[in-house]
Design brief:
β2 (about 90-95), α5 (about 100) and β3 (about 115) form a beta-alpha-beta unit. This protein has seven helices and twelve strands. It is globular, with a radius of gyration of 20 Å. The longest helix has 14 residues, at about 50-60. It has two domains: about 1-35, no CATH class; about 45-225, 3-Layer(aba) Sandwich (Rossmann fold). Helix content is about 30%, strand content about 20%. With about 230 residues, the chain is α/β, with parallel strands linked by helices.
């Protein structure tokens, strides 16, 4: 730990009177870390699976996303190709080097030009997996890592996200619980991105501009069933 970080954390502990915690305080801290308490959960997203997915789709569309619903992972390459053709986009795709998307049967669409790795800003379209979809707001939770470069989420003008039905949760609190379960205690990805719709801004004269700080299109491919490879 760097000296500056140690000093900051030491100051916080001292202000909380935890610089020299008693055995009871230490046990309480360990208990909270092991089993984090849950705050109030809004009833809005607490629905049965089908209704929860319907709410997610409705809220994502309200946020200007487009959505394709497919039966299984084998249908994803065709769904990607159809979307690119419909939007008059080039048949080129920068794919995250994550098994959830890299191992899809791309050979079934040989006209698609697939490259892998982080984006340098020259890619027009990217495809990444999601960790979770949040039904109450239509938000996607994406995590960073060597297999999921964050540049793919923001630099291309068109971002395609693969989400499976079992990854759709009711509320934000459940998404964070899913993240903690995925990564384990004491481990977090360097970046967690919460994305609701494509980038937009109305800062200048209240005129809506799409793609102001990131992709101008956000397309979600929702796959029935379970994720075979968690991001």
């Amino acid at each position: 730990m760097s000296d500056a970080r140690a000093q900051v954390l030491g100051t916080i502990r001292k202000s909380l009177r935890r610089d020299q915690p008693s055995s009871n305080q230490q046990a309480e801290i360990e208990s909270r870390l092991t089993d984090p308490p849950r705050g109030p959960i809004p009833a809005r997203g607490q629905l049965a699976s089908t209704a929860r997915i319907e709410l997610f789709v409705s809220m994502a569309k309200e946020a200007a996303c487009t959505i394709a619903h497919v039966a299984d992972r084998a249908a994803v390459p065709a769904a990607v190709a159809e979307y690119l053709a419909r939007e008059n986009l080039p048949a080129k795709l920068r794919v995250a080097p994550d098994a959830a998307v890299a191992d899809l049967p791309w050979s079934t669409r040989p006209l698609l030009e697939i490259t892998s790795g982080r984006s340098d800003g020259s890619d027009e379209v990217s495809l990444t997996p999601a960790l979770a979809g949040i039904a109450e707001t239509g938000t996607l939770m994406l995590t960073s890592g060597p297999e999921r470069p964050t540049t793919l989420n923001f630099l291309p003008e068109t971002h395609i996200v693969l989400l499976t039905a079992d990854q759709v949760v009711g509320g934000m609190e459940e998404a964070w619980a899913k993240l903690r379960e995925r990564y384990g205690r004491g481990v977090m990805p360097r970046t967690v991105n919460l994305i609701t719709g494509p980038s937009r801004s109305a800062d200048i004269e209240q005129t809506l501009q799409m793609g102001a700080h990131g992709p101008r299109r956000l397309h979600i491919i929702l796959v029935d069933g379970q994720a075979t490879a968690e991001p």
